[in-house]
Amino acid sequence: MPKPAAAESGLRASALTDDLSFLLARANAIALAAGNAALSGHGLKARSYSVLSLAAGEARPSQRELAEFLRLDPSQVVSLVDDLQTRGLVERRPDPADRRANVVVATDAGRALASAARESARAAEERVHAQLSDEDRQTLTDLLRALAFPED
Amino acid sequence: MPKPAAAESGLRASALTDDLSFLLARANAIALAAGNAALSGHGLKARSYSVLSLAAGEARPSQRELAEFLRLDPSQVVSLVDDLQTRGLVERRPDPADRRANVVVATDAGRALASAARESARAAEERVHAQLSDEDRQTLTDLLRALAFPED
DNA sequence: TATTGTTATACTCTATAACTATA
DNA sequence: TATAGTTATAGAGTATAACAATA
Questions:
Q1: Phi and psi torsions of B86, nearest 5°
Q2: What is the pLDDT of residue B11?
Q3: Spatial distance between the Cα atoms of B51 and B81, rounded to a whole number of angstroms
Q4: Is the CB of A100 less than 7 A from some atom of nucleic acid strand C?
Q5: What per-residue confidence (pLDDT) applies to A8?
Q6: Taking the CB of residue B4, how many other CB atoms lie within 10 A of it?
């Protein structure tokens, strides 16, 4: 990793350095790049990993629920699920309670991949957040959760 | 703002809810949407606001420095500066010390717009982060800065 | 009438490579 | 030989509207 250019240090004193939204964007860009790199060996990206991971859980989400939770447009979820389904990682099952809705559920292969991918993602996060203490990391997680789910 | 769907609460218990990268992505998406909405009245988005804001400061950044600081490709900075320059908000000045480099500096109109836009952005952030105490907000800012600028 | 999933489309963003002028 | 800016382009991501099936 290159050291910051000398002239960049002038920008470090700029107004943006105290701007929560800017810091959020930059930290997210760094974490996203590291996450995508860590997941690429599994044929996944952050997006598809999120969908797969949720499908592998107990929640049995519909596509609409996935879209809301991941802040994606429903039409984006269609193509993410299409891709995962083509690769045999998830299935669409009609919701018995509402025949309009598809419940997305991981196959055995999907659950296996999700758990392997989770290990890689965790290792990558470890590297990105290595400079934070366990306590800081927990604090950060709690504060971010408050921003990410403001209805609480 | 709609209340969360009942079925979404199942997803709230999922593995992703403890995933720092996921929370970062979701919080960023929320802040970005609010920021872009707040800036649209000024004809700006988060990206162009960042460039304008840095050009309005004391740092006199080159395009390359802007690209590194904002984690953008240099070619993206070209079109952002093009747009701002067309609107008379910034100028490109040749760097006397390196004639390859353009220093990007705000015009009077650019500085005025930057400062008006900063007010709007701050008000929007206030709304997004209203549920955090001042102390929590400061803690979050410091922790995010550690992630966003890991070389420190 | 409203909602779920889907398709289509247009637009923005991102990433890459190649070129020029300078260093 | 390397770097700053630029151009071009292709791919990914985003947003919107419309439609069929179902509620």
A1: -55, -35
A2: 87
A3: 8
A4: yes
A5: 54
A6: 16
